[in-house]
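seq as requested:
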Amino acid sequence: MPKIVEKQVVLNGRGTVVLYGSGTSSGSFFYRELVKGKRAYRQKKIEGAHTMEQAIEAAMEVAFQLQKEEPSPWIQEIFTTSGDSSSVKPQARVTKTILRKPKQQLIEDAVIAFLKLEQKRVDVGLLKAKTKQQKAITLTHHLLPYLKTKRIHYTTQIKEFTFKEYEIFRAEATPLTRNSEITQIKDFCKNYLVKHRLIEADLLMSRDFLVRGKVKQVDRMRNPAISSEDWELVAKYTRGHYRETSRLLQNYRIYYWRTLFWYFVLFAKNSGMSPEEILRLEWRQIEIIDEDRVNKNGESESWEVAYVYTIRSKTKQAREIPVNQARELRRWKKLQEEYLLFHKLNLSITRNTLVFGNPHNEFKAYGYSNYQRSWSDIRAALASKFKGHRFSKHHYTIYSLRSTFIEDHLLKGTPVYEVAEMAGHSVIETQKTYARLNLRKKGMEITMPKLSDETKGRKVIDLFLDEKSINKTHDH
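C-alpha cells:
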C-alpha cells in the first residue's frame, strides 16, 4: 500500500484527496472513495494537479469521471444531519423517487447534475472552465453547507425566505463576492431547478428570494492600486530576496518559477492586462518598435516600445497596448533560451509559445493558483511595511497590478478614454472604479517637465532575429 503523505476530505465528506509518497504513484494526487459495505477504496488519479489546492478544485470533476466508469451508491445517498426526524432508509426513498419521477430531488444530487450539464457547455466552448469552476465552488462550498444549517435537504423545501440569512452566513466575504455567489445560485435555481420542475417558478419573481446586497463605492476597491512606496517594496523583494533565496535550492525549478513570477508581476503592472490575459499571451502578440526619439538636447536616442495585441477575457474587447517593457521582454526571452540550453530541454521558443509558459510542461500555462500563492507569500512578507491604498481597506491582490496601471496613467494625466481603451473598460467604468485619486500627487505629476515629442522615424524589431543582427542594426 503506497504511503500517504497528505490527505484532505472533500465533497462534504464523500471522498478524500490524497498525495502518495511511495510506490509507482509517488508524487501524484488521487481522489478516492470508500466502497460502501467493504474495506476497500475506489480511486482515480487527478491529472495535471501539482498542489493540494489544485487537486481539491479538480476533485468534483474526477468524482464525475469515476462515477461514469464505476457507478457508486454515494450519489444516491440522502444528505442527512443529526437530529433529522426523517430517518427513512435512503435507498428505498431514492428508488421510489426514480420510478415515479416526482417534483423533488436531493439538493446535493441536483448540484451534481447541474455541474455535469455545465461541464458539457465547457466542452463545446459555450462556457469558460473557470466560470464553471467558480460555480462549483459556490454551490458545493457555500450553498450546500448553508442549506445544511437550515435542515434543508430536498429541492421542494426551498421557499421564498430560504436565503434570507445567506448574507449573515457569508458575512466574512466582501459584498461583491456575496453578490456574485447569489447570482450563481440564482442561475442554478433558474436553469436547473425551475427547468426540471424541482421548485416553483414563482419563487424567482419574488423580491425576497435571493436578494443581492447593496455595494458601496468603497467596496468596489477590493483590488486597490499599489502605492508608489509599496510598489518599491514589492519590486525590490520580488526581484531580490524572494528570487535569490531559491537560487541555491536543490530544486532548480523553483528559481525559474520565481524569476518568471518577477517578470510576470513587472509586465502586469506595466501593461494593465488581467492575469488571465497574460497567462494566454503568446510571443506573436508582441511587436517591438524602436521609436528613435529626439531628446530635449536635440540628440537622437533609441526608445523601444512593446506593442501588445490582446483580447480581454471578460468583455471580448480587442485592443493594442503600448508597454514600456521592450528591454525586459527581450531579457526574459533570452533567460528562457539559456534555461532550455543549460538543462538540455528539447524545446524551442517560437512565435506561438506562451510568454510565461512552463518549460517542464511543453510551455503550457502554469495554474493560476501558483500565481496566487506566490503573491500571497510576498504580501505576507511585506505586510508590516505596507502603507496600503489611501481609499481602500482591502489588501493588495494580483489584480492590484492592473489597478496600478490604470491609476498611474490617470495620475500622469492620460485622457480617461485612452486609459479605458488600454484597460478594455468603458469610460464610465474606468471613472467609477478608479477615479479616486490623490490630487496633490496628480498636480505634481502634471507639472513635471517631459522630453520632446519629436520623433525621428520608427524601426520594427523582431525578437526572433539573430541577436547579432539586432546589435548590428543598432550600431548603424
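Residues 72-102 have pLDDT under 50 and may be disordered.
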